[in-house]
């Protein structure tokens, strides 16, 4: 491995280890030496990559934000109605929270008391994405009569934050089956009856753990 | 003030100060000396009431649990349908989260990473309450066709946890107006059409901050 590759690999190990320790112990309790030990690198190597715990947390948040942005880009560029792309995006976010400790740590760091660094605000980015997709559905006339994009977004955002929180203790909350049941409940209220039949509450490329 | 009254008053000051410091700095960062200073009592007095930070956190959680149980008892004993009592209970819980830092701290402590003391699990208690009220609504035939108590409870629990989380950063999320809009969206999907007209999405005795 050339030097640059090795450095990138060490950085990746540190991010993964930091995410695991932040999730298990919380940001405030997590120590840099626990993180370097878990990554199997020296304290010196850790300090070479990240001078402070806050910089390490920001890197974890940035990494989680990159995943969130990939989900957002997919939701923008995929074919199909805005409602279907929103359903698929919630499935992908929940799968990422389930499978990737860096994503989970990123969301938890954003909510941690006593910490507001310069990193991205993941919940706010997710909320903006939900609002945009529902505004598009509203413009196209896909929302049910009397339902506004703002109210629909409130219901979807609060629920997905709840899934994320409850899922951090019990992963069944972020299972695809649970997310599908949520959409089966909510969708008939959000969608115009004429488009309801075209929508699927599942996302074909997301598989995961058993439901709640 | 007699001695016993003074001790109870000091204990109350300490609980309030601890809740404020836990919310502001997080459990792991909070120091007992910051808490005693905020309460305006000596470190000795703090240690007389609470030997460890964990015992203090458990006392905050117990105090929040007592408020939650009062809301639950009101939801059990009030007249009216189970759905209306559930709506009112969500309004009362959100108002408590908004107005009472001890309730807010209690919920946040339950979710804090690296901490699982012997205190009550407030989110679990709330979830059980929601499930029971919706099971009652189901038995009475008040739920819409094809909607189960379990699925309705999932939607209500995830959303209320989301409101709680988002409300800890921006109180407008737990405003009565926001909660009423949530029910206006969800209720037509949960309730049998024949009982919908009898239900109010507001709770007369709850007032609060402006909406989102």
Automatic annotation (TrEMBL), chains A, B:
Protein name stated in the entry: TetR family transcriptional regulator
DNA-binding stretch(es), residue numbering of this chain: 31-50
Family annotation (Pfam families): TetR_N (PF00440)
Record carries keyword DNA-binding: yes
Organism encoding this protein: Streptomyces daqingensis
PANTHER family: HTH-TYPE TRANSCRIPTIONAL REGULATOR BETI (PTHR30055:SF234), HTH-TYPE TRANSCRIPTIONAL REGULATOR RUTR (PTHR30055)
Keywords: DNA-binding, Transcription, Transcription regulation
Record domain HTH tetR-type: where: 8-68
């Amino acid at each position: 491995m050339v030097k640059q590759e090795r450095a990138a690999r060490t950085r990746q190990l540190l991010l993964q280890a930091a995410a695991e320790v932040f999730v298990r112990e919380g940001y405030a309790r997590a120590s840099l030496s626990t993180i370097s030990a878990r990554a199997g690198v020296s304290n010196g190597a850790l300090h070479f990559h990240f001078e402070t715990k806050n910089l390490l947390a920001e890197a974890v948040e940035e990494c989680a934000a990159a995943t969130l942005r990939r989900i957002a880009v997919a939701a923008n560029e995929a074919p199909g109605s805005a409602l279907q792309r929103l359903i698929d995006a919630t499935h992908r976010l929940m799968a990422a929270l389930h499978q990737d400790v860096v994503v989970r740590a990123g969301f938890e760091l954003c909510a941690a008391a006593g910490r507001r660094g310069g990193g991205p605000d993941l919940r706010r980015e997710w909320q903006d994405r939900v609002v945009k997709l529902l505004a598009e559905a509203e413009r196209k006339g896909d929302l049910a009569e009397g339902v506004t994009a703002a109210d629909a977004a409130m219901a979807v955002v609060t629920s997905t934050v709840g899934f994320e929180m409850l899922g951090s203790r019990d992963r069944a909350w972020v299972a695809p089956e649970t997310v599908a049941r949520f959409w089966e409940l909510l969708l008939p209220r959000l969608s115009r009856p004429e488009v309801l039949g075209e929508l699927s509450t599942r996302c074909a490329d997301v598989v995961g753990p058993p439901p709640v």
